[in-house]
Amino acid sequence: MSLEPFGYIPLSLFAWAAQMIAFHGIGYAFEWCDSTGRLRRFKVRDLDRMSYRALLPRVLFNQTAILLPSMLAVEYLGLAFVGAPHLTWTALVLTMIGMLIGHDVVQYVAHRHLLHHPALMNRLGHALHHQTGASKAISACYQSSADFFFEIVLPYLLPLVLVGGGGASVAFHLWTTSLGALGGLYEHSGYDFGLAFRDPAATGWRKRLNAALDHLTTSMAHGYHHTRGNVSFSDGFGTPGICDTLFKTRWDLVPERVRRRERAAASA
């Protein structure tokens, strides 16, 4: 797939536009479910008091004034979105794996050690995002400008640059941006489709299969990040959760009493 017939359009702009279509299309689909009650049995969090309309202006500002210029800049500097128009299957798989690992590491470092630092959480505005209850899909991008840059833009573009920029492969960039949009929206939607696989009567291979499908589809990790605060900094839907597992900050590895003690010490 190539953009040669549309060579006057920067690939980064094309990828951003595709991401906006995916983000706002999926985001509005979740909002439609909220307003109509569809999929109500999967709605496990309903904590947000801000409406879709109230969340939208800040989300659009972040996406157009911060994400888009950043994507255009890395292409202008020749760091990403440039090069071969096609990736071999081997290169595609290795690049995707590199992106997953890189995103996990960058987001974990920025999220845990910068945005959740006691002296910086309010100063960088991450507290604004935590005012939402992760139960409105588009609240994924309801953040201060600094927070949005460190938690959304940097974990996307820095790994992309480090793995070689993805070349000029339209397919790769559309796939990457669309998956990223879906993951963030679902984590903040308040829905947990893993419920479909929690059958207490299941046994044997069916129980094991259900457990695997539940793990792959649940939004529980990021829900716990919003309700408990100091767990699951990069662990969530569509992410490998490497750093949270290695440093034992994954939600199911941190007992509630430990979390309370750490928060008390941080505020002392």
UniProtKB/TrEMBL annotation:
InterPro entries: Fatty_acid_hydroxylase, Sterol_Desaturase_Related
UniProt record, GO biological process: lipid biosynthetic process
Transmembrane stretches, start-end: 6-30, 59-81, 87-106
Main location: membrane
Keywords: Membrane, Transmembrane, Transmembrane helix
GO cellular component, one term: membrane
GO molecular-function term, one example from the UniProt record: iron ion binding
Fatty acid hydroxylase domain segment(s): 97-249
Compartments where located: Membrane
Superkingdom field: Bacteria
Cross-referenced PANTHER family: STEROL DESATURASE (PTHR11863)
Name of the featured protein: Fatty acid hydroxylase
